[in-house]
Design a protein that fits this description.
mainly beta, four-stranded antiparallel beta sheet, about 0% helix, globular, metal ion binding, iron-sulfur, Rieske_2Fe-2S_sf, 2Fe-2S
Length: about 110
């Protein structure tokens, strides 16, 4: 597959998230489209690698997202945990903006 429409630019608030389900070759993938405090958009797995809950319900600070359940933080650019208790990264996906359309390729994690 290639990049597919995830949402529109206006759907994602600053320092906020927008949850989508996209189709990958392996099946449905839950993705959090996140706008960091600087206004940059990111696509990251919506499932915390520690607690298996939705990251899109968490808080965005700088270029990280915090899991609401146990407080793990993940870097939006790399998916690597920046704070415990998570020790495994979450996938991040290539994201492009075409006009107002936000496109994500879930078959090519970074």
């Amino acid at each position: 597959m290639t990049a597919q429409l995830a949402c529109y630019d206006e759907d994602v608030p600053v320092a906020g998230t927008f949850r989508v389900e996209l189709e990958a070759e392996s099946g449905t993938v839950e993705v959090a489209i996140v706008r960091d405090e600087a206004g940059e958009l990111h696509a990251i797995s919506d499932i915390c690698s520690h607690g298996a809950v939705s990251l899109s319900d968490g808080e965005v600070e700088d270029c990280t997202i915090e899991c609401w359940l146990h407080g793990s933080r993940f870097d939006l650019r790399t998916g690597k945990p920046t704070g415990p208790p998570a020790v495994r990264p979450v996938p991040v996906y290539p994201l492009t903006v075409d006009g107002q359309r936000v496109l994500v390729d879930v078959d090519a994690p970074l």
